[in-house]
Design goal:
Layout lengths: L1 E5 L6 H12 L3 E5 L4 E4 L6 E4 L2 E2 L5 E4 L6 H13 L8 H8 L1 H8 L9 E2 L4 H10 L5 E5 L8 E4 L2 H13 L4 E5 L7 E8 L2 E9 L14 E4 L4 H14 L3 E9 L2 E8 L5 H7 L3 H12 L7 H5 L5 E7 L22 E7 L2 E4 L12 E7 H4 L28
Parallel strand pairs: 1-2, 1-6
Antiparallel strand pairs: 3-4, 4-5, 7-10, 8-9, 8-10, 11-12, 11-14, 12-13, 14-15, 16-19, 17-18, 17-19
Length: about 400
């Protein structure tokens, strides 16, 4: 294949290793400076120029987008997607992961362990927010920090309040997060490629530092992950929309707590710690997937007016229980079942002979009008189990 590595650091360890791994496997590979692209929307089809000339044909790109150029970088990746060039990490995936709040929000409905996190803006909401995640000491994070910069451990509520107010006053948004003290100075980085963890390491902070980032002087060692940690890492990357990702997890008392998912994970620390060929695994994966450029299903399918995707529920005493998909009248109504979800089980492309059970969820494509009556009621919020002391009753009403 012909592979472009998008990077502004051709001499960096990760870039060099990826390039060498691709060359070793007989691929044609170029490192292209992300900032030298021009997105060209002047012709009949989406196009790209590089250093002022029309870009030649590539089969795949591997984006390594630094946090200082997220907007332009993801725009370039999105343009490759429009041109049907395969990328393991989509523009959406990179944007999702880059913002720690956005990532936490997206993961939060998928039963993935995460440190208790909250986000507020009004001065009056700061103290209750700190209490909600367990009080001081408490972690305060800039939304788009990396390498440990922008992550603060505030020892007392008053100090935390002062820091947050100061940051708010300079228009910086911050997360407030429970300090996971049982994992102080220690965390796990799992390198996910496709649907498996190809390498994992434990990082330990230097001295009394609580951040274990390699850039903060942390040391690394190879670690064998339990299935729980492995699945959490893989699912987090998948939910985020990333096929190459570095998932950071704290070792909580009850299992893994995902802090963030990195879309351009560095390779030096993990290859040194594990002596594994992570770059090779990434290139092999891209080589296998190159025929399947990412398709934005929602965007493509909704081009046919009146049609769309919906999740239908097989109701307890509804018409479908006990019938097979073939007998269900769905196909007569122009509805195609894409996947069947039963508990934690997923059946892709379920056959007509599959019998439906109460509680099954069917991801369907079809005429929206036909599906309307079968759409389940909105998710109800479960009553929250409070482990922390209850807050005083709110004085004001919402709104
Ligand atoms: N809630 C927390 N509890 C304990 N330690 C934390 C917490 N959040 C972050 N840390 C420590 O700080 C480091 C950096 O945090 P992280 O959210 O990964 O930001 P960055 O993007 O800067 O790496 C982590 O690797 C971990 O060692
Ligand atoms: Mg991190």
């Amino acid at each position: 294949m012909k592979l472009a590595i998008l990077s502004r650091a051709p001499r960096a360890y990760s870039t060099q290793r990826l390039r060498a791994a691709a060359e070793q496997r007989g691929h044609e590979v170029k490192v292209l400076n992300t900032l030298r692209f021009a997105i060209d929307l002047s012709g009949d089809e989406p196009d790209l120029q590089f250093r002022g000339r029309r870009l030649s044909d590539y089969d795949a790109v591997l984006p390594r987008i630094g946090s200082s150029i997220t907007y332009f970088g993801t725009a370039v990746v999105r343009q490759f997607e429009q041109m049907d060039v395969y990328t393991p990490n989509t523009a959406n995936g990179i944007s999702n992961a880059r913002d720690k709040l956005r990532a936490t929000q997206i993961l939060s409905r998928h039963s993935i362990g995460m440190p208790a996190t909250t986000f507020v803006r009004n001065r009056a909401d700061v103290r209750p927010a700190i209490e909600r995640v367990g009080g001081a000491p408490v972690v305060i994070k800039l939304l788009e920090g990396t390498q440990g910069i922008g992550v603060i451990l505030a020892p007392e509520v008053k100090v935390a309040e002062a820091i947050i107010e100061t940051l708010h006053s300079t228009n910086q948004n911050v997360l407030i997060q429970r300090f996971v003290s049982e994992s102080k100075g220690r965390d796990i980085r799992a390198l996910v490629v496709g649907d498996r963890v190809v390498a994992a390491m434990r990082r330990r902070a230097e001295g009394d530092e609580f951040r274990s980032n390699v850039h903060r002087g942390g040391s690394v060692e190879r670690v064998e992950l339990s299935p729980e940690y492995e699945q959490t890492a893989v699912r987090s990357a998948q939910i985020m929309g990333l096929k190459v990702a570095g998932v950071d997890m704290l070792e909580g008392a009850d299992g893994p707590l995902v802090m963030e998912v990195n879309s351009s994970p560095g390779l030096q620390g993990i290859e040194t710690a594990t002596q594994l060929d992570v770059a090779g695994a990434i290139v092999d994966y891209i080589g296998n997937q190159v025929a399947f450029p990412e398709i934005d299903v929602r965007q493509r399918l909704s081009v046919s007016t009146g049609y769309g995707v919906a999740e239908l529920l097989v109701r307890n005493n509804g018409d479908f229980v006990g019938k097979t998909i073939g007998e269900s009248s769905l196909s007569e109504r122009d509805i195609t079942v894409l996947t069947l979800h039963r508990g934690t089980q997923v059946v892709p492309n379920p056959r007509n002979r599959v019998a439906l059970e109460a509680g099954d969820r069917l991801l369907c494509f079809g005429k929206l009008e036909e599906m309307r009556s079968m759409v389940p009621e909105r998710r109800r919020r479960r009553a929250k189990v409070r482990k922390l002391p209850a807050e005083p009753l709110p004085a004001a009403t919402e709104g």
